[in-house]
Amino acid sequence: MITAQLLPASHPTLRFDGTIGYTIEGDVAQLNADLAVLDQQSLQEQQYALQLWACTEPFSGTALHGTKIAEIPVATDQASHIDAQALALLPAGRQDYTMVMALTGTDTQGAIQLHDYTIFNNRQLFSQPQLEGRIDCQLHDDRAQITIEAIANPRASDNLSGSLSLELWALDAPYEGGAFCGFELARTDLGTLNGGCEWRDSQFNLPLAQLPAGDARSLVLMLREWTPAGYLTRDYRSLQTLAASTAEVTAVAAPEAAASTESPAEAAAELPAAETAEASATVEGVVAEAVAAAAEAEQPPAAQQETAAETATEERSAAEELDVATLDVAAEVQTEPAPAVKVEEIRKVGPAKAVAAVSINEATLNELTAVKGLSKRVADAIVESRPFASVDELTKVRGIGARMLAKLRDLLTL
Predict the structure, then answer these.
(1) Domain containing 118 — which CATH number?
(2) Contacts of residue 366, Cβ cutoff 8 Å, sequence gap at least 6
(3) Residue 385 Ramachandran class (φ > 0 left, ψ -120 to 50 alpha, else beta)
(4) How many domains would you assign to the chain?
(5) DSSP string covering 111-126, please?
(6) In angstroms, what CA-CA distances link 226 with 98, 160, 199, 249, 372?
(7) Is the pLDDT of residue 273 over 50?
(8) Could you tell me if 308 and 171 lie in one domain?
(9) Are 206 and 144 in contact (CB under 8 A)?
């Protein structure tokens, strides 16, 4: 959720003229608009874009507060009619929004100008997988115990969700949707969920990453869904503030905690057009590839690369909010998540069996990740910090403290 300040163009070169509309089907937005050129000579001086916004506050023509759902580059040689697709990056939560179509231009200095806009009369409510009822989260030493009254998919009965994941994050600031900066504490894959169905009274006992020393953090539980753009946040609950030095804390969300509007692609729609001026018509090819790839597989195959959420660290920032039309998003579209584990399967998991010690200097990333208590993020950090002279040097790795090392010592070797 961001606020974009748009400066009204002093000499507009384009404006809406005729039909303006949009449709959203799954993860694809179709934008169309008839345009009129007001100043042909000045047309080449800017790069233009057609943007669709879901706004939480009224739009007066200057400040857009909300989520940029989609953006289409407008080629100056085709500036009479636009009808194109882009990935739809929907806001998380369950509130309804005022929908705004904006026609923007970016000059050579990077300044964004608003040439025209229209506000649609009907407010938009997005139907997405969601968290329902009471949520209880207790952190004990190296485990997170989470109880959720219901996880539901309110879509049509024939609309199977993408692979869902439940993620617990400690963020630097209260979460309002979109991109975020923080530290992943725990996560688990849930699998897919049929439309009109829900999982009731779900309980999870998850490995808990050690929180780095620092200021107090905002604790957030996110429900994320795999899409052609990677994992996107569909719903979330903000829990109580978590102090970095706290070893145990109980955080409870109200039954209907307020939730509003999140992979680089998820946050891409929240950057002003000046940050993405190099976007081009390749977006249609990106979308076509993404939709085709999604259709070929009923469920994401085995993990070959981490999703944007799993590779995010405390250094994740708005800088990763790249435009959906860039080649970076094309690369993200082709990444796939780890195989899903259904909730019913998670409940049946018993104590881990003893395993042979794993070499911290020679083991593969997958072998390290298989060690109980080592998250993918921490395993990545171990690989990047090699070689080690002793197992004790693991305390230099971000995310591993003395207490965590004591629990892992029998499972690791040089």
Answers:
(1) 2.60.40
(2) none
(3) alpha
(4) 3
(5) -EEEEEEEE-SS-EE-
(6) 26, 12, 18, 30, 25
(7) no
(8) yes
(9) yes
* Antiparallel, parallel or unpaired: β 96-106 and 47-55: antiparallel
Q: Quote the domain boundaries for residue 393.
A: 352-413
What per-residue string of b and e applies to 129-159 under the rule 16 or more CB within 10 Å gives b?
Answer: bbbbbbbebebeebebbbebbebbbebeeee
Does one domain contain both 190 and 141?
yes
**At 306, phi and psi to the nearest 5?**
-80, 150
The β-bridge relationship of strands 14-25 and 28-37 is: antiparallel
Quickly state the pLDDT bin for 62 (edges 50, 70, 90): confident
Percent of residues in the chain assigned helix, strand, coil, to nearest 5 = 20, 40, 40
Token pair, residue 177, equals: 């949707």
On whether the CB atoms of residues 225 and 161 are closer than 8 A, the answer is yes
On the question of a cis peptide bond just before residue 58, with omega within 30 degrees of 0, the verdict is: no
Please provide the DSSP assignment of 189-243 as one string. EEE---TTEEEEEEEEEEE-PPPPSSS-EEEEEEEEEEETTEEEEEEEEEEEEE-
| CATH code (residue 381) | 1.10.150.320
Indicate the pTM of the whole model.
0.57
| CB contact at 8 A, 31 and 283 | no
Quick: pLDDT tens for 314-359.
Answer: 333 333 333 333 323 333 333 344 333 333 333 333 333 444 788 8
